[in-house]
């Protein structure tokens, strides 16, 4: 046995080998040590190898999926090795014969299909990047849904495109793996190297034509050599991992970078589109706006949010669909109730195609078809927008398959085929007979006994059973002659002292049927399952189309529900360079404030429309914590939501098409690559300045803050000029360098704006209102006081700030003033805590005695003089 294990393990050195041993998957040697640590299970030993104990651990087969998920999340790959024959057959070859085993599947992050291993509301993409000479291409597939896409992609575009797609695993040729593995890992995916042969474009074309059973790929589009290489590498890898049992994939669809808004990885992270900076989905924009009720709709929402469209016709069609749902809320609510009962058709179909499904997947297809028909009927005889009309058409035309499944399946089938009982009574006569014999054998025998008694006229005739004769007919010796006279019908078996026993051909056949009824019923159900599974996979393309139609309707009704509940408005999106938002809000922050029961969100306007030709930049000043970053982010999110086809959190919005979205808001060290906070900031800023075109929307926050004051001011100044003169884009530029506000007088496309605050008795009150004009100062000392700095530090900071400002007015340099004027070592010792008051002052006592409602105007005037006198004494 161990020799067999080592032989199979040698074929998969980079994977943990799940070696099937009866009801367990067992692991040995280093695999056992690694798995035991990762799964927190007991590490034991079994036998010896080369004189050393063999480490061993195992997991039950029935709960293996949970362990698989843990291992995959921790970066392992797992080769699943099954028994390929019955142990009884192995013993026929000899008592020491080893059961034949082989790997049936290689489980990797990008090839998961089991429901328990996947997030139903997210895609699980496997990607491949290929290069041929100086051209590159990126392909990606979700084998759990069949989505298969490809696009041209240079190395410089690889990072933002991978960030957009979010694959779990990326295939790389050995030729580029060393250069790109780190980039893939940084984006949270697992890099998997493949041989150069897997990325050969000629071989790739052959694999693709064989998979889709076509003579040429031209029917699906015109693919370049790198695109064919990337697509072919995915098919080759699936053939390796699925052991030749390829999933149902849709024909490859070609995408173009110009179809969607370009958003790089840093911007996605800064804006928290699908994941919050703290990790997880909570706090992200996706989590905030997701009101879909189907798994397919949730996956579509994430795709739309990650890839906002740049096609006006597409955007307008999506807005029309949302408007249709808002105009008829009764219909939309009814549709959402129907949608709640739609299962995940795509993933059920994928599991059935890979033969990893079960009766519940058959039922999922049936239930999906039932609900699709109900939804289509609700949409009949209505004036539908184009998106809904297309969807309604795609929901119909499956009557034959639906009727077959409806007749064949019980309402609530079991999980596994071997459990049986999922085929409905009356669907198959042979199965009904086998079940009757299995479940009602005694009544069948009783019926035969009655028939035989009537036939022979012997009322006392019985059918009995024992372990020697099986079923037999017994009568008393008195009636033996009558039975023997019918010897052509009743066959003599045995004579005892008091009775004679007979059988018939019918009884022998029935005995065989009863004894084999359970196994026969299971075999018939398995055959019927395979037949139904085959009928479903034959309709795979139409079912995928139906699933997309369901997802479209779900997303449109969900966005309408969101817009109605949150008072969002339909944006005007056109081909201009306009950017005007009235009373815009940040959806995530607004939701958080509402959940906390705090102050309402303060809405603000933004207008970056300019004159339509030059840059339109708002230079935003104001203190920390006043809401500058929130204002920047909310306008970026409004543009993104508008172009993905959603309504937006504003009173009104006019968005000229945005081609690129760039955000540099906040930064942190990247110690693994030796980058300081300032270096990260500069890298992200460089990417913006080098790539942004005149249709881009850029939001920049505190450029230059990570270095010396004059260095930072210089960098921020030059950056702003470059955005205005070279990139000529729309931008929101927040800064603490008040010197930059002078650029509004010199650059025609720059306008000053500030976040308003109010100072009261040394404290600063944040009004969160964005107004035209420039801030006079940053209020940093006041913010420091609010943060809890010791009073002595705050007081000292005020002194230093006052002298610095005075020196600046007198034209002194900061360094000279610090040396000449500031008492550098005069930091005051900590002040003693304030003594509590002994009691109310005379003024407070008098105020407590006053009853305003009892005062005449003359009394009020006299009282005012009294209070003034008391305040002087105090």
Model description:
This protein has 874 residues and is an alpha/beta fold. The protein folds into seven domains: 2-107, DNA repair protein MutS, domain I (MutS, DNA mismatch repair protein, domain I); 115-259, MutS, connector domain (Nucleotidyltransferase, domain 5); 290-398 and 539-566, MutS, DNA mismatch repair protein, Chain A, domain 3, CATH 1.10.1420.10; 429-527, MutS, DNA mismatch repair protein, Chain A, domain 3 (Orthogonal Bundle); 572-784, P-loop containing nucleotide triphosphate hydrolases (Rossmann fold); 789-820; 842-873, no CATH class. 46% of the residues lie in helices and 18% in strands. The chain has a seven-stranded mixed sheet, with helices on both faces. It has a six-stranded mixed sheet with strand order 3-4-2-1-5-6, sandwiched between helices. A six-stranded mixed sheet has the order 11-10-7-8-9-12, sandwiched between helices. Strand 14 and strand 15 (470-476) form a beta hairpin. Helix 11 (295-306) crosses helix 22 (540-566) and helix 13 (329-339) packs across helix 22. The radius of gyration is 38 Å and the shape is elongated. The N and C termini lie far apart (97 Å). 40% of the residues are buried. The model is unreliable at 669-674 (pLDDT under 50).
Total domains, how many?
7
Please list the strands of the largest sheet in the order they lie side by side.
Answer: 13-23-24-25-21-26-27
CATH architecture of the largest domain: 3-Layer(aba) Sandwich
Q: Structural class given helices, strands, pairing?
A: alpha/beta
Task: Fill in the CATH topology of the largest domain.
Answer: Rossmann fold
Strand content: 15-25%
Number of helices: 32
Poorly predicted regions are 669-674
- Average pLDDT works out at 88
Q: How many beta-strand segments?
A: 27
Query: Span from first to last CA?
Result: 97 Å
CATH superfamily of the largest domain: P-loop containing nucleotide triphosphate hydrolases
Write down the Rg.
38 Å
What spatial form do the alpha-carbon principal axes imply? elongated
Major beta-sheet overview: 7 strands, mixed
Helical amount among residues, as a percent range?
40-55%
Q: For this structure, what is the CATH class of the largest domain?
A: Alpha Beta
GO cellular component, one term: cytosol
InterPro entries: DNA_mismatch_repair_MutS, DNA_mismatch_repair_MutS-lik_N, DNA_mismatch_repair_MutS/MSH, DNA_mismatch_repair_MutS_C, DNA_mismatch_repair_MutS_clamp, DNA_mismatch_repair_MutS_core, DNA_mismatch_repair_MutS_N, DNA_mismatch_repair_MutS_sf
Keywords: ATP-binding, DNA damage, DNA repair, DNA-binding, Nucleotide-binding
Region (Disordered): 824-855
């Amino acid at each position: 046995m161990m020799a067999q294990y080592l032989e199979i393990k040698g074929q998969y050195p980079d994977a943990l080998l799940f070696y099937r041993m009866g009801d367990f998957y067992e692991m040995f040697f280093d695999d056992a040590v690694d798995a035991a640590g990762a799964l927190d299970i007991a590490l034991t030993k079994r036998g010896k190898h080369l004189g050393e104990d063999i480490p061993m651990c195992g997991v039950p087969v029935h709960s293996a999926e949970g362990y698989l998920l843990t291992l995959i999340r921790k970066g392992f790959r797992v080769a699943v090795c099954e028994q390929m024959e019955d142990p009884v057959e192995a013993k026929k070859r000899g008592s020491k014969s080893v059961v034949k085993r082989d790997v049936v599947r290689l489980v990797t992050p990008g090839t998961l299909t089991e429901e328990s291993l996947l997030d139903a509301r997210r895609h699980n993409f496997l990607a491949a990047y290929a290069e041929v000479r100086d051209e590159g291409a990126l392909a990606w597939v979700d084998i759990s849904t069949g989505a298969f896409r490809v696009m041209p992609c240079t190395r410089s575009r690889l990072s933002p495109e991978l960030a957009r797609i979010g694959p779990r695993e990326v295939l790389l040729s050995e030729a580029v793996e060393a250069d790109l593995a780190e980039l893939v890992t940084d984006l949270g995916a697992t890099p998997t190297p493949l041989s150069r042969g897997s990325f050969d474009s000629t071989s790739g074309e052959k694999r693709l034509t064989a998979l889709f059973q076509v003579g040429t790929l031209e029917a699906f589009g015109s693919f370049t050599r790198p695109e064919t290489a990337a697509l072919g590498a995915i098919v080759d890898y699936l053939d390796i991992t699925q052991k030749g049992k390829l999933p149902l994939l849709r024909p490859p669809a070609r995408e173009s970078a110009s179809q969607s808004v370009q958003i790089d990885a840093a911007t996605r992270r800064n804006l928290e589109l699908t994941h919050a900076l703290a990790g997880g989905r909570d706090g992200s924009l996706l989590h905030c706006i997701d009101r879909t009720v189907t798994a397919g709709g949730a996956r579509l929402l994430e795709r739309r949010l990650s890839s906002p469209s740049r096609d006006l016709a597409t955007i307008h069609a999506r807005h029309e669909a949302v408007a249709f749902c808002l105009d008829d809320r009764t219909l939309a609510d009814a549709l959402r109730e129907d949608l709640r009962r739609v299962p995940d058709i795509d993933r059920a179909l994928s599991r059935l195609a890979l033969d990893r499904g079960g009766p519940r997947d058959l039922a999922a297809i049936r239930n999906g078809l039932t609900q699709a028909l109900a939804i289509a009927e609700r949409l009949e005889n209505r004036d539908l927008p184009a998106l809904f009309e297309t969807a309604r058409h795609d929901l119909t035309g499956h009557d034959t398959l639906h009727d077959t499944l409806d007749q064949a399946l019980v309402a609530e089938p079991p999980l596994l085929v071997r459990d049986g009982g999922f085929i409905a009574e009356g669907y198959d006569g042979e199965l009904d007979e086998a079940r009757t014999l299995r479940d009602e054998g005694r009544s069948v025998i009783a019926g035969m006994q009655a028939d035989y008694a009537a036939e022979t006229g012997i009322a006392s005739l019985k059918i009995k059973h024992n372990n020697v004769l099986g079923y037999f007919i017994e009568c008393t010796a008195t009636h033996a002659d009558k039975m023997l006279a019918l010897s052509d019908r009743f066959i003599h078996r045995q004579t005892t002292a008091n009775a004679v026993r007979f059988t018939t051909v019918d009884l022998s056949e029935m005995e065989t049927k009863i004894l084999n009824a359970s196994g026969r019923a299971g075999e018939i159900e398995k055959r019927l399952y395979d037949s139904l599974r085959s009928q479903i996979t034959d309709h795979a393309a139409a079912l995928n189309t139906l699933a997309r139609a369901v997802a479209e309707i779900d997303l449109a009704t969900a966005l309408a529900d969101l817009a109605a509940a949150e008072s969002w408005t339909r944006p005007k999106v056109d081909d201009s360079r306009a950017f005007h938002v009235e009373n815009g809000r940040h959806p995530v922050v607004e939701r958080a404030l509402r959940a906390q029961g705090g102050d309402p969100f303060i809405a603000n306007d933004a207008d970056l429309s300019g004159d339509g030709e030059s840059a339109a930049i708002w230079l935003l000043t104001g203190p920390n914590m006043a809401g500058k970053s929130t204002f920047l982010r909310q306008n970026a999110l409004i543009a993104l939501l508008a172009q993905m086809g959603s309504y937006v959190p504003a009173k009104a919005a006019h968005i000229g098409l945005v081609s690129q979205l760039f955000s540099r808001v906040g930064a942190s060290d990247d110690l693994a690559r030796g980058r300081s906070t300032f270096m990260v900031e500069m890298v992200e800023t460089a990417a913006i300045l080098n790539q942004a075109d005149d249709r881009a929307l850029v939001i920049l926050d505190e450029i230059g803050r990570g270095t010396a004051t004059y260095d930072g001011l210089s960098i921020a100044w030059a950056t702003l000029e470059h955005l205005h003169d070279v990139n000529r884009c729309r931008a929101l530029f927040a800064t603490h360098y008040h010197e930059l506000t002078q650029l509004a007088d010199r650059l025609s496309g720059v306008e000053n704006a500030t976040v308003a605050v109010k100072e009261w008795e040394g404290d600063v009150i944040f009004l969160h209102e964005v107004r035209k004009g420039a801030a006079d100062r940053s209020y940093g000392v006041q913010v420091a006081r609010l943060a809890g700095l010791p009073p002595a530090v705050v007081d000292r900071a005020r002194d230093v700030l006052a002298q610095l400002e005075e020196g600046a007015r007198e034209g002194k340099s900061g360094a000279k003033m610090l040396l000449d004027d500031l008492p550098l070592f005069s930091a005051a010792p900590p002040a003693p805590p304030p003594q509590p008051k002994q009691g109310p002052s005379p003024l407070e006592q008098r105020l407590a005695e006053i009853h305003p409602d009892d005062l005449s105007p003359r009394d009020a005037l006299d009282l005012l003089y009294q209070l003034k006198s008391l305040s002087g004494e105090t």
